[in-house]
UniProtKB/TrEMBL annotation:
Domain of life: Bacteria
Domain RNA polymerase sigma-70 region: 23-90
Keywords: Sigma factor, Transcription, Transcription regulation
Full protein name: RNA polymerase sigma-70 factor
PANTHER family listed in its UniProt record: RNA POLYMERASE ECF-TYPE SIGMA FACTO, RNA POLYMERASE SIGMA-70 FACTOR ECF SUBFAMILY
Length: 204
């Protein structure tokens, strides 16, 4: 994706609306999900993400200065979210009670009860991580970014990102340890546990 997005940026700079639409289709949802880790509210995350793409198109003649387009998008979203939070604090609008948001189950309605419970447990475990740790875990596991890219996006050292990822995986492993007395039948659950184990072993 890194090479593809570079090509898209080059074409957008030349005024290619088709390339802009392709970029929007590929990254809008990712940007919304990332923004929501900061601002918590879906509507606000969508608004910030939409504004980012509008500004990107309006300032497309400056895109040649961007060395890493993917990191650029994430950093831009992060900065926009932080600005929004600062503004909201001044107006006493933003609430920080999002940790109590009800989590949706990932599994289909036909999943076995035990699989649904484990899926919920994994979701809750991820969402209960400290904010920075949760963001790092999701960027690496769900968005597939590298630790050095996440370090740039969040303004942290690579070592800090690695440590936070290790702590996140260790915490998740401990949380679900009581559930590992049986072998999950669901492919989605087996996949999640396999990925979790692989990351944990890699970081040891």
């Amino acid at each position: 994706m890194s090479e593809k997005i570079k090509i898209l940026f080059q074409e957008i700079q030349q005024g290619n609306k088709g390339a802009f639409n392709d970029l929007f289709a590929a990254y809008y949802t990712k940007m919304v999900t990332f923004a929501q880790q900061y601002v918590k509210q879906l509507e606000l995350a969508e608004e910030i993400s939409s504004e980012l793409f509008v500004k990107l198109w309006l300032k497309r003649n400056q895109l040649s200065k961007v060395l890493n387009p993917e990191v650029y998008l994430y950093v831009a979203i992060k900065n926009a979210c932080l600005n929004s939070i600062r503004t909201a604090k001044k107006r006493s609008i933003l609430s920080y009670e999002a940790d109590n948001v009800t989590l949706e189950l990932i599994g289909s309605t036909n999943s076995k009860l035990e699989d649904r419970e484990l899926e919920k447990l994994l979701d809750e475990a991820v969402n209960s991580l400290p904010q920075q740790r949760k963001i790092i875990f999701k960027l690496i596991k769900e968005d597939g970014l590298k630790t050095n890219e996440v370090a740039v996006i969040l303004g942290l050292s690579k070592r800090t990102v690695e440590n936070q990822l290790y702590k996140a995986v260790k915490s998740l492993a401990e949380t679900i340890s009581n559930y590992l007395g049986y072998h999950p039948q669901s492919k989605s659950i087996r996949k999640q546990l396999s990925e979790l184990s692989a990351i944990f072993l890699m970081l040891q």
